[in-house]
Amino acid sequence: MLHDQSLTQAEQAFLNAPFAPGGWQVAVDALAAATRSRHAQLVGIGGPLTIPFHILSDWPDDPNGHMNNVSLVGHGNWRIGTSDKAMAIRHEAHYAAYKADHFSADYEDAMSDLDFQFGCHTALTLETSGSTRLALLRTRREGACDSDTLERFALLARQAERAFRVQLALGEQAAELMLAGVEGRGEATMLLDRTGQICGMSAAAEALLDEQQGLHEEGFAVRLSDNNENQAFGAAMGRLLHGDGVNGPVLHEMVVGRSSDNPGGRWRLIIARLPEIEPGLNFAPTLAVTLRSKGHQNQMVMPVVAAA
Fold first, then answer.
1. Which residues neighbour 147 within 8 Å (Cβ) at sequence distance 6 or greater?
2. What are 222's strand-pairing partners?
3. For residues 71 and 82, is the Cβ–Cβ distance under 8 A?
4. Which segment of 88-92, 139-143, 259-263 scores lowest on mean pLDDT?
């Protein structure tokens, strides 16, 4: 593998991505250039929005709307299906083996329409609640990945994973600042990003999760034990996340923690949409989820982002 200027520029672009406005788009564009591929992709899958972020170096002609069809992220997707561990590189040989046992006409037709039959990918993160994936989506003209393309992609995927960890840490730092205002009140508050994953929580919220009575942590996501409550919780988060914190709903309240011993529910759960800050791949705190014992009537104190 020749370590040329395009590869060096792509490495630098990924390492700078968490700190520069539009940095991830620049990095994905540089990945495409360094691997001589028209389409490079960084995509998040999972959470209330199903696809919370999607960055592509060059969007294809898509009259059938395949790129926005969330049903294509299911079992028949041979890119997703071949991911069994984080940072493992999967390419055409793995795709062919998977398709032999899990053929999906819908996904195959979509990839044919988009001219995305070839390529490679890796999961930068792979959790039960979701994943973040880096990929090359290669056309018929570009053909399958050769050894040099795979080596270049693997090298840049390692830099992307490092940068991604930095981005998560920045989101956690923002969450710590926002939680400072509720810690003294003993509020059981969790801050979630746009993927629905926890990026920070107060000590009181951590204690509630440790009890595992009515709610628990699954991966980095919070889940309610009652299926109906959990579905309503997910739907409410989805509605709030579709807005920008100004337009659309900004608050949702529901009773949760129902059980045979407590059919009326244990808590009032309040979800608040936080103001937009630098998106950073949508891992900044976006929702504040507070749990209060029923009958607690104090006004909710919203976390405030400290001024830079």
1. none
2. 217
3. no
4. 259-263
Pairing of strands 130-138, 267-273: unpaired
Cα angle value 205/206/210 (rounded, 5°): 115
Q: Which of 161, 177, 134, 203 is nearest to 277 (CA)?
A: 177
Query: Long-range contacts made by residues 233-238, C-beta under 8 angstroms, separation at least 24?
Result: 233/269, 233/271, 234/48, 234/196, 235/48, 236/271, 237/48, 237/192, 237/196, 237/271, 237/287, 238/48, 238/49
Question: CB-based contacts of 165: which residues, under 8 Å, 6+ apart?
Answer: none
Tell me which residue of 141, 160, 27, 163 sits closest to 89, measured CA to CA.
Answer: 160
Three-class secondary structure of residue 299 per DSSP: coil
Q: Which residue has the tokens 């992609």?
A: 153
The verdict on pTM exceeding 0.90 is no
Q: What is the pLDDT of residues 157-215, one digit of tens each?
A: 999 999 999 999 998 988 888 888 777 777 899 999 988 999 999 999 999 898 877 88
Task: Classify residue 216 by burial, with Cβ atoms within 10 Å: 0-12, 13-18, 19+.
Answer: middle
Nearest to 172 by CA among 194, 196, 199: 199
